[in-house]
Amino acid sequence: MNKATVVRHFAILFVLVGLVSAEADAQSRRNREETKRSLFGISAVLARPVGEFQNFVDWGGGIDLYGVVNLSRRGPLGIRFDGSLLIYGHESLKRPLSNTIQRVTIDVDTDNLIASLGVGPQLTLGHGALRPYVYGTAGFSYFATVSSASGTADAGSFASSTNFDDVTAALTAGGGFLVRLSRGRHPISLDLSVQSVFHGETDYLREGSILESADGSITLVPIRSEANLVTFRLGVAIGV
Questions:
Q1: Cα separation, 88 vs 101, whole angstroms
Q2: pLDDT over 50 (residue 188)
């Protein structure tokens, strides 16, 4: 074997070693990206009442924010912090500004809300492009009916009141899939999930629960029932 052949073989060997090293380094970076210690997510939520709750309330919607802190870099177990805001009823009325100013009307909007906070364990499986997960949380939900007044030509409200509210314990159980959309320092995943929410018996208002009398006074007709939900969530999650 002549000198030129030896040099050529060594050059090929160095190139192959370089390619293997580069691929190993890239794989290592991908593994680190896919096992971020923390995760932040935001989702649009569609809420379906179940059980007694569906006898009084229709579908609702809102937004959910959550964070997951893994207990170890590559371990499947993490702690989930979850917060959501749902609107399950809305009414809009036009009223004169006062009995003496009939020509100026205002918009009166009433929203039925559920604000929830919870914390609990989450188990996320796998490190690839598709990662299933399950979780459960314990916390509380705040049911409120809020009315606000604004001018018909003005987007902002100038007055608001809480007509009725109640606080109750909340337990959730959920699961879904993270579908990787991008890599990098902060990888992004599509988040698809379903969650069951258990409230037990709760006092709340629905559409039509505020009755107006001719003299301008109002009467509240609260409902007491279980207020359980199933929510369907579509959003994104970001490794941080």
A1: 33
A2: yes
Is the pLDDT assigned to residue 22 strictly greater than 60?
no
**Mean pLDDT computed over 41-62:** 95
Q: Exposure pattern of 8-22 as b/e (b: 16+ CB <10 Å)? A: eeeeeeeeeeeeeee
Asked whether residue 135 carries a pLDDT value surpassing 50, the answer given is: yes
Bridge partners, residue 179, by sequence: 130, 190
- Does one domain contain both 113 and 45? yes
Same domain, 17 and 85: no
State if pTM tops 0.85.
Answer: no
d(CA 180, CA 208): 44
């039509």: which residue's tokens? 208
- Tell me, yes or no, whether 12 and 47 share the same domain: no
Contact call for residues 135 and 121 (beta carbons, < 8 A): yes
pLDDT (0 to 100) of residue 237: 95
Q: Range of 26's domain?
A: 1-34
Model confidence band, residue 238 (pLDDT cutoffs 50, 70, 90): very high
- For residue 102, give the CATH number of its domain: 2.40.160.20
- Interacting residues of 21 by C-beta distance below 8 A, sequence separation 6+: none
Count structural domains, the chain. 2
